[in-house]
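To whoever is on call:

I kicked off a structure prediction for a single chain this morning and the downstream step that reads the tokens threw a length-mismatch warning. I double-checked the sequence; it's 289 residues and nothing unusual in it as far as I can see. Pasting both halves so you can look.
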Amino acid sequence: MSAPWGLVLHGGAGVRAGRNYDRAQAFLLETVNDGAERLKRGASALDVVEAMVLALETSGLFVAGRGSAANAVGDVELDASIMNGRDGRAGAVSALRGFTNPVQVARRVMERSEHVMLTSAGAEAFAAEQSCTASPPGLDWLVRPDGFEAVDLEEGHGTVGAVALDISGGLAAATSTGGIYGKRPGRVGDTPIIGGGTWADSRVAVSCTGLGEAFIRASAAHDLAARVRYAGQGLDQAAAGVLVEVARLGGDGGLIAIDAEGRIAMPYDTDGMKRAWASHHAAPQAAVF
């Protein structure tokens, strides 16, 4: 019997019934297909989640990376994080300007610095030192590809993320966002907070999307892992319980999670969540509602 593996992507939980998300759904399916092939060839979960999130950032179809919009004073500030379940290493950046792939910078923070998180000017200086991909000159962040739904900006739930289990048993998670449209400068949500919007350990990997303040207060990603580790809950029960707690704190959204057996959870309490998944027992699929 082949070793279990699995991959889940999300493109945000801020969707509205009746709207057309065909382009985003098709891109998620294409991307998860690519990730599935990488995992089947033996790629690490860490490499795959970074590659998946980088692709989603670059697409411009989500409120992350190139698809992000300006804050209240016209700056585009990006957040991202990545975590390796094998050894608990993590990296994150917040309020990053001038770089369209913050997940790339987050991984460099994890692997090439003594820190877990860098922010603002410090993150930008580090990204430049590491020769990370800078924003193209003259990039108009507000130009959207055909089919982009403005509601994603209004709701602020266009965060992207990936969780993966590789054939050697490694788990990893990564999350990236441009945050809420028109946000106060310097505002940071749950995405770059290890344990808030992103978590991976030897049992489970998690990436969240939704109202960041509530997910932070709930320590949502870590709470799911703790429910699995200490309470012995199954993945579905743990994931559902986390969203109940987020709702109690006034938030909504969704999350994706995968465990060491390749089981997948993708709950949300909004109208829908852009998502795609594949595993050793499930062909690549994508859905929104």
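Update from on-call: the warning came from a stale cache, not from the record. Cleared it. Sanity check on the structure: The chain is about 30% helix and 20% strand.
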